[in-house]
Amino acid sequence: MIHCLLPLIVLFGSPAHPTSDDEPFSHVDPFLGTGGYGHTFPGAVMPFGMVQLSPDTASRDPKESYPWCAGYRYEDPTILGFSHTHLSGTGHSDLGDFLVMPMVGEVHTDPGPEDRPDQGYRSRFSHDLERAEPGYYTVQLLDPDVKAELTATTRVGVHRYTFPETERAHILMDLVHAIYNFDGKVVWSSVTVHDDRVVTGYRQTTGWAPDRRIYFAAEFSKPFKSYSLTREDREHYYFRERGVRRQPVGAQTFSGRKLKLVFHFDTEANEPILLKVGISPTDVAGARRNLEKEVPHWDFERVRHEAKTAWRQELDRVRIDGDRATKQIFYTSLYHASIAPMTYCDVDGRYPGMDGCIRNAGDHLNYTVFSLWDTYRATHPLFTLIQRERVPDMIRSMVRHYEENPRKQLPIWSLHGNETYCMIGYHAVSVIGDAYLKGIRGFDVARAYQAVRDTATHPDYDGLHHYRKRGYVPIDLEPEAASKTLEYAYDDFVIAQMARALGRKADFRAFSERAKSYRNVFDPVTGFMRARLADGRFREPFDPFRAAWAGDYTEGNAWQYSWYVPHDVQGLIELMGGRHSFVTKLDRLFEVETDEEKYKEVDDISGLIGQYVHGNEPSHHIAYLYNYAGMPWRTQERIAQILSVMYQTGPEGLAGNEDCGQMSAWYLFSALGFYPVAPGDGVYVIGKPSLPRATIQLGGGKTFVVTAEDLSPENIYIQSVRLNGKDWPYSYLYHRDIAVGGSLHFEMGPEPNRAWGSDPTRVPPSMTETSKTW
Question: How many structural domains comprise the chain?
Fold first, then answer.
């Protein structure tokens, strides 16, 4: 294929839509995080879109699925094909629906081994001939010598395959392929070939989402001359050629657990064949309507341009100054934080409810993929600043989930109309309460609060009845008991704040008392949060360094979880013996030697600084806790360290799972200079800005401008702060200070200003008063 290399280099090096280096769009790198532990995908997706049309690079045993959670891994040498649904940065695998792959020459219906792509339909590729931007992906498939291009609308994936001259061009549609694949994942599938252009079908799968149905309607730009079918690994041929009548005649439907179709074409040199695929969670009719409504034409470049326009609007929500690497990390983070949750309804509003009934969201969007254990921390608080118009629909979606769920619970980790019950806590209440307390409306507040309260008083969920009875979750009755106690206590704090705002005085008192339950798992002898038995004793033996699946803690150990009291840091300082003891132990967290052998059971733990684990969420608020002890300069040092070590450009630029936007949202807030330690308290704790200037579009014509004077790699310390031109001696901001618009100005220097933010009256608020701990 040397003869075509030069034109390919020219083609791939020249974008069809040139962009200015100054605009955010040009700085997004969809490959960032596709290597290492980031688990992102590089393919085409619209903001919060239902379709994520992206390459899949490996088919592995389910026991080895963790590196391929997003389907694509930068290190892999071959591509299997392009599927229409993916998860962004999760630590679990699923989806990968309706894989499409072009072929030339011999027909294959099995992917074949990675080291022998000629034995299957997979193809080698080179990163030199691969490129991606928001809403568009392209790669040259070396084995068939086909250029693949992908773009998408919200519900439709559009493919363009440019073939060489051949009488043996093929396009495969594999309904067996899945991410996290195993025998029996596809429960049933069906395909109907309507004519020589249109194909529809569906499949039902079980996996992380235990019962999921997804439908498609596909249309080719060129009639196929024939097609062949493999069903249950047995090959059947059905021909349909223009000018030749061969049976079967008319639309043909095929059903089974293992269906693969190959469509056959004659092509001229450099002839493109387009394929557009609408998907739907409801039925084939919905998929056809989605296809007809969103892409009623065959203009690939128009779809690509519309996707680019949508992404430009999203990325323009924050404008920053900075060097090229900083802009790439920042805008790629903003891009990743705008992928999930994803739209989960047809163009007419229909979607499948948790109860299996088809419902209608009306003129509102229904969303799915709420990775709430991760995203309540920073992603959803980010939405309350820059996506305020979307937040009401997200809350409506959560409340609908509660109403349709036979268990009458808000989502824990929702996926395509399913509840996975992955992770712990009931953090939808944090998202709802935080939004309400920030003044966001547009949803039924009374229904939302009822859902919040019912979820927090559920009689049968993860040891919650034990927690209500004893004030803690007993480890001999429920796994991960220490973590569950701590996370329930935080959620209860948010409920208490919402109850107070609604005038629900009895609930305010009850949930405020429950929010103190973190004290029941603190061991004053060891100074750690520990799991207790039902009889009240702490579990023995105790190793604060060990992390284990279904152990005392969730994806962490005592070193990380002992700081999880975001709503009452002053109370935690009191338990630990005062602020100096607190800071000494906090320093040790970052400095104590790491023994990775203690983490071998837990894949998700990565990005370590001592025992601080930035690659996993329980650590994300910890660096900001120095502020509560009146030592904000220590927070500034830690944030500078984390930003420089854990976020880089390139495929391995993320230290851990992106987790549906949480890793990115942490970066966005921290680069701006503040972070929501305890969503629901209306406070952002000031850290260290990393941008000379940032303008945040708040909606309604309001902006909040953050500037950092004399910022440099050496000048990491805040000398002074001005809010709207006035001196600001506090080491925190209220949400209302930002939401009304205005300016925040930092003056930076090379040495700490130990006076700023050190006064006990100027540290961030907690349930426990500062005067009791100092």
Answer: 2
Do 161 and 302 have their domain in common? Answer: yes
Helix (H, G, I), strand (E, B) or coil at 289: helix
**Distance between CA atoms of 332 and 24, rounded to whole angstroms?**
9
Q: What is the pLDDT of residues 692-708, one digit of tens each?
A: 999 999 999 999 999 99
In three-state secondary structure terms, 713 is: coil
Alpha-carbon distance of 531 to 698, in angstroms, equals 43
Query: pLDDT of 567-597, one tens digit each?
Result: 999 999 999 999 999 999 999 999 998 777 7
Per-residue tokens: 576: 């630990």
The Cα–Cα gap between 660 and 39 comes to: 10
Within 10 Å of residue 404's Cβ, how many Cβ atoms? Answer: 17
pLDDT at 550: 75
Residue 437 makes CB contacts below 8 A (sequence gap 6+) with: 497, 498, 501, 680, 682
Instruction: Look at residue 183 and give its three-state secondary structure.
Output: coil
Range of the structural domain that residue 493 is part of: 318-772
Examine the fold and report which residue of 287, 314, 341 is the final residue of a domain before the chain moves on.
314
User: 292: part of which helix (H) or strand (E)?
Assistant: helix 284-294
How far apart CA 141 and CA 301 sit, in angstroms, is: 21
For residues 189 and 209, membership in a common domain is answered with yes
Q: CB neighbours of 63 closer than 8 A, spacing ≥ 6?
A: none
We report the CATH number of the domain holding residue 27 as 2.70.98.10
Are 279 and 386 in the same domain? no
Q: Which residue has the tokens 């009401």?
A: 392
Write out the H or E segment, with its range, that includes residue 330.
helix 324-336
CB 570 within 8 A of CB 773: yes
Ramachandran quadrant class, 713 (left: phi over 0; alpha: psi -120 to 50; beta: rest) = alpha
**Residue found by looking up tokens 């300016």 in the block:** 743
**Inter-helix orientation angle 662-672/379-386, to 10°:** 60
Consecutive H or E run containing 100: strand 99-104
Structural domain ending residue among the three candidates 295, 314, 333: 314
483: helix, strand or coil: helix
